[in-house]
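Note to self: the last two entries modelled the partners one at a time, which told us nothing about the interface. This time every component goes in together.
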Amino acid sequence: MIAIIDYGLGNVQAFKDVYSRLNIAATIAKSAEDLNNATKLILPGVGSFDHAMTKLDESGMRPKIEQLVVETKTPILGVCVGMQMMATSSEEGKLQGLGWIDATVKRFDSEKCIVLPHMGWNDVSPKSNSELFKDMDENIMFYFLHEYYFDACESSNIEATSDYGGEFTCSVRKENIFGVQFHPEKSHNFGMLLLKNFAEI
Amino acid sequence: MLRSRITPCLLLRDKGLVKTKNFKPFKYIGDPINAIRIFNEKKSDELIVLDIDATSENLSPDFSMIKKLAAECRMPLCYGGGIKNVDHAKQIISLGVEKVALSSSFIDNPDLVTDISSVVGSQSVVVILDVKKSFFGKYEVYTHNGQVNTKKTPMELAKLAVKLGAGEIVVNSIDLDGSMKGYDLTLAKELRNAVNTPISIMGGAGSLNDMKKLFDVCGVVGAIAGSLFVFKGALQAVLINYPSSVEKDNLL
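The predicted structure of the combined assembly is written out below.
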């Protein structure tokens, strides 16, 4: 069962709806107990970095999630701020991130990106043989809504890139840990396919 | 390459969908859920839903209705109407809405933008400015369905909103609302030069060519339309429509 982590942020219902359209079992988890039967996790997120970290701490689910991800190696997909939380820290806040992937979250350079936030549909270039982006043809596009980006220290963790005032990482993978900066739950067919691919990993 | 956004705007009154002209006569369009389903099928870039009763009648957002709309919506959703405090905004975002839009509540209390963006993030805070051109050709921002003149220009209010934490500015031309005569490109260009956030232009779109003209003037921008996407033909029969991906590619 895929558990969509509901810590009061992000569009949990949209993920549930996509999975019900795909006929894939998914549940919304609001407590550590709800995560007991989870074989996959989705960590959504909207808002500021510190607010998201605080909300996750307050939810009481963080120790259980860390155990599942770090010890049990349960696959997890972080989305938007949910991906950014997987880094060690963010320029947007003072709190520490989850630190699962060696990366810092940085603000786009406002001299290169004249218009911020980065808002709308943009091209995404996955690396070849990416499981997350499997079966996607050319002209892959997703919806973005952010002004901070995930700066991965290890290039081997980069799953896909996009371009906004220069190339940046828009998807990462480290073993069982996956992240996407864009919003697959609101990206029509490509989004559905990505969430299906994650379910089948 | 980041694309310009082509965004239908749905206006709600008494839980039904309506269309205005110059912010006045209302025409009943139908059921909002049904409209959202059609825009899902047509893969619209985004969607804006504005509850036009909420502000003028001083109501709070109708959370149960917003929840239903958000659950149905497979594209990014922006909701506006009756948002007066941080809790309203937080609750709406938690229902699965990507962006909250403020209008008169920003004019009444500009700091609300800062308070909301510090919680939900700037990228999710939109300020909508309803604009009328005065007899002397000056742009002025109005509130309460175009009834109250703030005597301020959209450019100065847009700059203030961005400074306080807004992530997107929408200007809506009251004069052109429902006219289908094309966007006010002068206003669009002035706004583009005034702020460094994404902007969207609303009011007047009568054809896809009007959107193309907007993209030519502003570069990457949001093109919002109501009538264009809910009416068909000279008699304005209700028919929800949206450009195909090929038609969109031809515009960009």
